[in-house]
Amino acid sequence: MAHTAAIHTEKPSKWSGGSSPFKVEYGKLMMWFFLLSDSFTFGALLISYGTTRFATIGWPDPNVAFNKFPGISANAPLAFVSLMTFILIISSVTMVLAVQAGKEMNKKDVVRYLILTIIGGLIFLGCQAWEWTHLFHEGAWWGANPFANSNGTQSTQNFTNFFFTITGFHGFHVFSGVCINVIMLIMTLCNKFEQRGHYLMIEKAGLYWHFVDLVWVFVFTCFYLV
Amino acid sequence: MSNLEQLESGGHTHAHAFDSKKVKREIWRITLYLSILTVVELILGFIMMPWPEDSLKRHLVKGLVMALMLWKAFYIIGYFMHLRHEVRNMIMVISIPSILFVWFIAAFLGDGQSYKDLRARMDPYHVEHAQLPMEFPAEEGHEGHETPEVHKMEAPAATPAPAAAGTDTSKKAE
Amino acid sequence: MNNEAVLQAGAATLHVAGDHGEAHHHHKQSFITKYIFSQDHKTIGKQFLITGIIWALIGGFMSVLFRLQLGFPDTSFPWLSTVIGHWAKDGHITAEAYYSLTTIHGTVMIFFVLTGGLSGTFANFLIPLQIGARDMASPLMNMLSYWFFFTASVIMLSSFFVETGPFAGGWTAYPPLSALGDASPGSKTGMDLWLASLILFVVSQLLAGLNYISTVLNMRTKGMSMMRMPLSTWGVFLQAVLGVLSFPVLFAGFILLIFDRHFGTSFYLSDIYIQGVGALPHEGGNAILYQHLFWFLGHPEVYIVILPAMGIVSEVMSTNGRKPIFGYSAMVMSMFAIVVLAFLVWAHHMFVTGMNPFLGSIFVLLTLLIAVPSAIKVFNWLTTLWKGNLRFTPGMLFAIGFVSVFISGGLTGIYTGNSAIDIHIHDTYFIIAHFHLVMGVAAFFGMFCGVYHWFPKMYGRHMNNTLGYIHFWVTLVGAYLIFWPMHYEGLAGMPRRYYDYSSWESFKQFVELNRFISICVIITFAAQFLFLFNFFHSIFKGRKLTVKNPWKSNALEWTTPINVGHGNWPGEIPEVHRWPYDYSKDGHDFIPQTVPVGEEDNPLYTSAEFTGIKVEEEPAKAHKKAHA
């Protein structure tokens, strides 16, 4: 059979076995596939939000709902969330620097950048806690929406329902990312990676952290901007 | 074991991985791009703020913001998550499944829109009801909510208060 | 070997304590690490299989119970009250219990038996053996995946014993029945346990799926290119891809559902009025959203169930037909096409929800496209059988039976995929007949086929063939007698999920038929005990394997010793030089994958020792001695 003959031809390629076709170790591959699958979780939540918004007559204006900045009583739409966005971007940068320092086997830099990343994550979580508290005192919570539609008509609860669920789920990811980074920091300080001879774990933690940042790009746009 | 060594360098040639200055320059360059894109998004957000909802120009700007969002996502995935520097196979394996989102989004949002349109046609009362102005302070089902749960609010992510809005819901939640 | 380097490096990265790497050196293991918290993929596969068998028994017994109600609505069975207590008053199953039974039957069969039991078993057991790896990429995650599955099972089982009973709103758990605790007795604690169980199940599937994918992509032995993998590996690999991309969507849907149940939200609840509760204060929600999210998983789920079965059947059919599989690349490509299409067609379950008809017509088009790869596969199976030198082992019979029920059930899929016809037959017994044949019975046949075929590899013993033949014929005839008449009932408009049809004049004509179906169900269910007896008896008392390669198969798993320990190959992992389907080629009955091209006639590679057909003496004892 011509077909079988084709299969028999020995042609060494990346896929012919014995090594990874992607030149990555399995842990990183697994992390990538996990993130792909997690992006479907977030995707499903955000798409549900979009679907509900498309299915509803009228929607509150996010610039009215999210218009406060701590310490400022004036109307300041988009200000606070911009701050949060920049914090997350900066913490992503420090993380990528930590990963790079790991590749160079530079323990001191790894520790320094990891600490900066953890601080960034904690500040972000603090910002979110402040925002949630503030919204709660305005009467917003799961099942309660004090904000009228942008044209002043009766709005649905789903505005706040989705906001708290999705930012909460994202915040949970940030929280677990911070936990992972703390574990990485402890392992680095205990010279675990020096003993192993590589900092591959930091790279995987970095992937997770960047994913959290990536999701925030979408959450930020979908909830605060449009 | 040469394979292992190769893996340790993250799948790159050593020359590339250890050209520290070049890599760091790239990181800061991408940071700059991301910041610029975010600032542009914010400027667009401020520009469209006074525009009426459902106006065409607002929709166009929203579309533009979405495009910028995807552009930012590209930078984060490509450079921070390093996908652009992986081998081609890897890029394909990660990016091709993401194409499923196109139909995922189109069908869901399309059906959401259709739900609204069909309901507006079949149930005119629903449309009428949606034209009523919102009452302040919110009275139907929203009150009785602020006061009792405030103390539970301190740790919002851990134990969300059972947001019992009115008697009917609390009965339901049992 | 590179592979080992990768595995060792991986193991070291994963385990902080670093104690895993030693698992490959045969050191003494306690009973607990060997049989319970085992990290050996073969043991984990067997654990999945046995848990799946237990669940199949429970799920099957449930179907017997509700078929009793459907077949004999007027007869009282006092023993029922003994078995299920107050769920059967005066020997009649109560309506609540009936709905719980159908719901849990569906959930258990789909998720725990055909996903956990079928793909969990064969993915774990076959992937490392067939691609030539020592174990999964991460044995620890593999073990966790089983124990998450086990916990999910225990929670689901515990929901049978709560006062208000298990969930009773259908396996799809549509709101408002699933979102409102007051909607039905089963919607209270039963539903919470159902959700908890399925969320753990999703976690288990993700852990497992990530592992299967990375193992297949990264850890193939030298020469084992993707297009040289046996189709059974392709099947479980692609089902893992489906699972990893679709289960998260179900997970997201469940998160929203939990908020609807307990935190006063209304994602899925609109302003409806419920008798006894009054008008709900909810606004803006939309139950169709849940249906979309559910079926975005739900449709890929049926392929998660059927792809491993397809792969197993292809492998068994080629081995026992002593012929190369017909159109190997077409088989792989059509499986790929099924994977892609699986994500594009979910809303064909929702034609009657009031979905946009235009959107519906796109879904019809995409749905009908699935017929193309499915038909390609069926033709390839038939042409593989054509003029083959068939060996009718029980595994082979089930493989052929699979093709039969897959065609019978698949043809009705073309009807149900059309929205115009589906609006008439939606939610009738026609649908029940369709999906039970094409996915329930077919996947079960794939599972039986796999168990009969790989039992010698699993336990080093043979199953009894005579019992296998009886089991096959009773099951095949029984399955057709149960589900074929349901097509007629469905076309006559008989709706599914009804407790009692006796008050409808139009369904009086089916009283006898329903009784007939119920009797067939009981007989078919009883026949499964033959299999159970055969399975468990053979583990301990079956005829011992005397050769490594009893089926004269080409695939790599038969090059391992009988009753092999953790690590799969005692020496080096063999190198692969050809695809696994070189049967009846160039005067050779079979040429194992490890024979280099051009060396087919080399006595070294045709020796009985190399091909694994040399009779070994007391293999089990020799093995035990070696490992003591």
Automatic annotation (TrEMBL), chain A:
PROSITE patterns in the record: COX3
Membrane topology note: Multi-pass membrane protein
Gene3D superfamilies: Cytochrome c oxidase, subunit III, four-helix bundle
GO MF annotation, one: cytochrome-c oxidase activity
Domain of life of the native organism: Bacteria
Record keywords: Cell membrane, Membrane, Transmembrane, Transmembrane helix
Residue ranges occupied by any Heme-copper oxidase subunit III family profile domain in the UniProt entry: 1-226
Pfam families: COX3 (PF00510)
Subcellular location: Cell membrane
GO cellular component: plasma membrane
Transmembrane segments annotated in the record for this chain: 29-49, 78-99, 111-132, 162-186, 207-225
Keyword 4Fe-4S: no
GO terms classed as biological process: aerobic electron transport chain
Family of the protein in this entry: Belongs to the cytochrome c oxidase subunit 3 family.
Protein's recorded name: Cytochrome c oxidase subunit 3
From TrEMBL, chain B:
Transmembrane segments: 30-51, 63-83, 90-109
Keyword Membrane found: yes
Biased segments, Basic and acidic residues type: 139-154
Segments for region (Disordered): 139-174
Location in the cell: Cell membrane
Membrane topology: Multi-pass membrane protein
Extent of Low complexity compositional bias: 155-165
InterPro entries associated with the record: Cyt_c_oxidase_su4_prok
Keyword terms, alphabetized: Cell membrane, Membrane, Transmembrane, Transmembrane helix
Main location per the UniProt record: membrane
Entry's Gene Ontology cellular component terms: plasma membrane
Signal sequence, renumbered to the chain: none
Protein name: Cytochrome C oxidase subunit IV
UniProtKB/TrEMBL annotation, chain C:
Protein family (similarity comment): Belongs to the heme-copper respiratory oxidase family.
One GO term describing the cellular component: membrane
Membrane topology type: Multi-pass membrane protein
Subcellular location per the Swiss-Prot or TrEMBL entry: Membrane
Name of the protein: Cytochrome c oxidase subunit 1
GO biological process: aerobic respiration; electron transport coupled proton transport; respiratory electron transport chain
Segments traversing the membrane: 48-70, 108-131, 143-162, 193-213, 234-259, 293-313, 325-346, 358-383, 395-417, 429-455, 467-486, 516-536
Keywords of the record: Electron transport, Heme, Iron, Membrane, Metal-binding, Respiratory chain, Transmembrane, Transmembrane helix, Transport
Organism: Arachidicoccus rhizosphaerae
Record's keyword annotation contains Iron: yes
InterPro entries: Cyt_c_oxase-like_su1_dom (IPR023616), Cyt_c_oxase-like_su1_sf (IPR036927), Cyt_C_Oxase_1 (IPR000883), Cyt_c_Oxase_su1_BS (IPR023615)
Domain Cytochrome oxidase subunit I profile: 31-595
PANTHER family: CYTOCHROME C OXIDASE SUBUNIT 1
Single Gene Ontology MF annotation: heme binding
Lineage of source species: Bacteria, Pseudomonadati, Bacteroidota, Chitinophagia, Chitinophagales
